[in-house]
Amino acid sequence: MIDLDLAMASIAQWGKADGLLHVTEFEGYRKNADGEDAKLKIRVLDNRQKGSPVRYHVEVTDEYGRCATGNPDPDVDLAVSGVHWGNLDSPLKPVQGSSPCAPI
After folding, report:
1. Are 72 and 47 contacting, i.e. CB atoms less than 8 angstroms apart?
2. How distant, in Å, are the alpha carbons of 6, 49, 100 from that of 84?
3. Cβ distance 29 to 39 under 8 Å?
4. If you write DSSP's letter for every residue of the chain in order, what string do you get?
5. pLDDT tens track of the chain, all 104 residues?
6. What count of Cα atoms within 13 Å lies in the side-chain half-sphere of residue 89?
7. How far apart are CA 62 and CA 64, in angstroms?
8. Domain-by-domain residue ranges, the chain?
9. If exposure means fewest CB atoms within 10 Å of the residue's CB, which of 32, 61, 95, 97 is most exposed?
10. What does the alpha-carbon distance between residue 52 and residue 33 come to, in Å, rounded to a whole number?
11. How many Å apart are CA 58 and CA 81, to the nearest integer?
12. What is the pLDDT of residue 104?
């Protein structure tokens, strides 16, 4: 298993990078409001700063491009439970501007 703290410290030092996040991705399915299974991609972003009030942030995108996020939280369970999952049930509409779940 990789030592994440060491990896992030090395990237910061050698890559002269800051604001690093460790990203864990999950994929699965969720029944949407129409009762259809929609494929999901869930990203848990972790700044690895123990005790940070904004350590974890969760972004969820479905196969149709709908996105749901919540507020950052120091606890991963609270970050997941705070996701606005109902956004994944909203009617499809064209994306305008930048989405909080848009890839960089």
Report:
1. no
2. 33, 24, 12
3. yes
4. ---HHHHHHHHHHHH---S--EEEEEEEEEE-TTS-EEEEEEEEEE---TT-TT-EEEEEEETTS-EEE---BSSHHHHHHTS-GGGGGSPP----S--TT---
5. 889 889 989 999 999 998 889 999 999 999 988 888 999 999 999 998 888 889 999 999 999 889 999 999 999 999 999 999 999 998 876 555 555 675 54
6. 10
7. 5
8. 20-89
9. 97
10. 35
11. 9
12. 41
Query: What pLDDT, on the 0 to 100 scale, is given for residue 94?
Result: 58
Tokens of 66: 């709908």
The residue type at 100: P
